[in-house]
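tool_call: predict_structure(chain=1)
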Amino acid sequence: ETVNSVSVDKKDITKLGDIVSKFTSSQHQEQEYFSPEGAQTNQQEFSYGNTIELDENLPTSRPTQKPRFLSMDPVQNDLKLLGVKPLEPDDYNIHTPPLPRDGSPLLVSISISLRNILEIDELRQLITLETTMRLYWQDYRLNVSHLLPTNPYSNASDDYILLHPDTTHYIWFPDIYIDFAKALRVPKFMVPPASLRIYRNSTARYATQNNYDVACPMNFRKYPYDTQICKVKYESYGYTTQKMLLKWKKGFDQSKVTANNSISLAQFDYAVKFEEEYREAIASGEYPGVIMTIVLRRKINYHLLQTYLPSGLFVIVAWLSLFLPPEAIPGRVTMAMTTLLTLAAMFGAVRQNTPRVSYVSALDIWMCGCIVFVFFTLLEYVIVLCIIYHKPKITKEEANNCSKSVGMQTLDRKDPNILQLEDKQRRKQRPRFCPSWRRGGSARCRPKEIIHTHCGHKSAQKPPKPNTDHLLVEKWCRRLIAIMFIAFNGIYWPLLTHDDGTIDREFDLRSGILI
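tool_result:
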């Protein structure tokens, strides 16, 4: 057993020696790989398909495959192999911005392409945007001229090399963020939709596509004819204006600030404006930024058909109930109560689809006004019924002028079973049926005296006139309610649609294009 264990240890030591020798040879080959001759060979190998005329003295044969450091990221290793970044770590620091040599702040240009407005959440006051953002800055520490062919047009749009998006982790990158953004999503499949270009003049261009939810404070006082202004702020988080400036990009590679004119919104007309400069001043300093302003004006067509027209018709139906005769109590009450309950249910449904704000919106005023007018028609009918069934009271003087007379019930000659009244009393009392076999025992069938009251007042002597006050009340109420509803519309709609024209002068809201 001891002999076997010693032989196994010898085999392990032999394997360890082979690994050390291979590692030593790889280090030696790596030093040759980063030698000047190796760099020239690499220049030819990583020319990205561009034809480069090489010196005759340079070796023409391709080098053998050289091993890479296992601890180094492939992207970082490629940057060093390509010679884009300096080989010495002290020559490039990603924590230090590439400030111009004259000491001025670094200029970072930004362009935004609004691809789509995905969602407008009014209850949470959020707007979801899909944009393509491009950033431009110049980093003189990056060099790709040796990887590009000789081009007489030094500012040509194709005079660049395209690098992997992960390269941004190993070079200095602007710390741009979206203020008041709630969520940021990158729609990627395998590789994020982003690109990094390095131009001949050491200008870096980074482009990416993403969608995000950003807060948009909204004012619903004129809802549903409101106009919302959403400001999306892009600003630097850590660098003040002394180190970096942020401005909108115009020109260079013809990627101007653009908006997608094919965006179609169901309930809004939109317009986009890009403000030139924005600075956030706080205690730690001023931070640069830019603002993209999105103006949303609601289309009122939907609410005209779903809310305004039905509620107005319900008010007219309640007003038409005033033309029914007052004696038709079930019909008039049913029409008024049905319209009142329907408007109340419609008002509750409308409030569920609008934000719960503490102030009153224009739609609330309209719905409450319609409910009040329907309530007026029901109140008018109650007043009319009170006038119809009202009876005048007899005063004390009228009661003193009244005298009493006595009449006797007698048997009818044709039918002895009927107790007949005297001629003067027939208007006041009806004859009673009383058979002969009940006259003696029942007090109800015995002839009795009937006392009648006669008042000497003039009003009592003449038959009372029919009361027509309720007809006059109905006539004036019909006119008054109609005039009030017309006046309400005449005041409501001009105030709702009033606009000073400031937004229309800056934006073309019909097509969604910046003027």
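agent: The mean pLDDT is 75. Proceeding to next step.
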